[in-house]
Amino acid sequence: GGNFNGKGYAKFDKKIGASIEWYQENDGGAGEADLYIRYSSKIDGKGGTYIKLVVNDEIVNNKVFLRNTRNQGGRWNKVKVPIQLNRGANTIKLISVEDTGAFIDEILIN
Q1: Residue 17: exposed, middle, or buried by beta-carbon count in 10 A (0-12, 13-18, 19+)?
Q2: For residue 66, which of 12, 110, 5, 27 has the smallest C-alpha distance?
Q3: CB within 8 Å of 2: residues ≥ 6 apart
Q4: Dist CA 91 CA 85 (whole Å)
Q5: Those residues with Cβ within 8 angstroms of residue 106's Cβ, 6 or more apart along the chain or in another chain
Q6: pTM to 2 decimal places
């Protein structure tokens, strides 16, 4: 793949239950935030794929839809999901719920 940000990206390797986890320190107060997931996914015969989003061990969304990009690894899209962050330590986890092998480039929190 190309056109990713930074030094690389993570792949779910077509395994149900594969996961990627981040630690996010929140120095401000607890509250709502927007999580942006930058991804690449091209699933033949389907419009996209789904992942599960878990924040601080709480399921935020069982099926976040990642719409197909023009090609996998060469084109990237972002999806926005509202989340709740705690003050201090937070964990954000993406889990594959299908065996489609999406690529995850980065997450951003606003």
Answers
A1: exposed
A2: 12
A3: 73, 74
A4: 9
A5: 5, 6, 9, 38
A6: 0.92
Length of the chain: 110
pLDDT tens, residue by residue, 10-41? 999 889 999 999 999 999 899 999 999 999 99
Mean predicted confidence (pLDDT) in 80-98: 97
State the Cα–Cα distance between residues 103 and 1, nearest whole angstrom: 9
Count CA atoms within 13 Å of residue 44 on its CB side: 0
b/e map of 49-84 (b: 16 or more CB within 10 Å)? bbbbbbbeeeebbeebebebbeebbeebbebeeebe
